[in-house]
Amino acid sequence: MGNELNAVILQTVLCGVMGSGFAAASVIWELDSWSLARQSGVYFMIACIIMLPIAYITNWMEHSIAGVLSYVGIFIVIFVVVWLAQYLSWKHKIKRMNDCFRNR
Q: Is 21 buried (19+), middle (13-18) or exposed (0-12) by CB count in 10 A?
């Protein structure tokens, strides 16, 4: 990067790109005509397109095929774990709401 200031500027710009990308991608969850599988798949692909170049530029991964594959594998595992946690959490909340309505 040359110096610390350039590194901080690059990090700031990339954080802005990441935040903007994920904010824009969140619209996918509002598309009621799409199935949950389609929403999840498209959101995952957008997340990969956002994160992979940023991870490469910031040296979060080794710059080799093995490094990229390792990063993508870890990214997939984290995505699936977070997705499942959110899914189960919302499923539980919806069940409680439905039970409340049935008991009225």
A: middle
Please provide residue 34's backbone torsions phi and psi, each rounded to the nearest 5 degrees. Answer: -90, 150
Each residue of 36-86: pLDDT tens digit? 999 999 999 999 999 999 999 988 999 999 999 999 999 999 999 999 999
- Chain centroid offset of residue 44 CA: 6
**pTM greater than 0.85:** no
> What do you get for the CA distance between the two ends of the chain, in Å?
63
Q: Pick from 40, 44, 51: which is nearest to 15 by CA?
A: 51
Q: How far is CA 27 from CA 2, 16, 30, 34, 90, in A?
A: 38, 18, 5, 12, 18
Helix (H) or strand (E) holding 4: helix 4-25
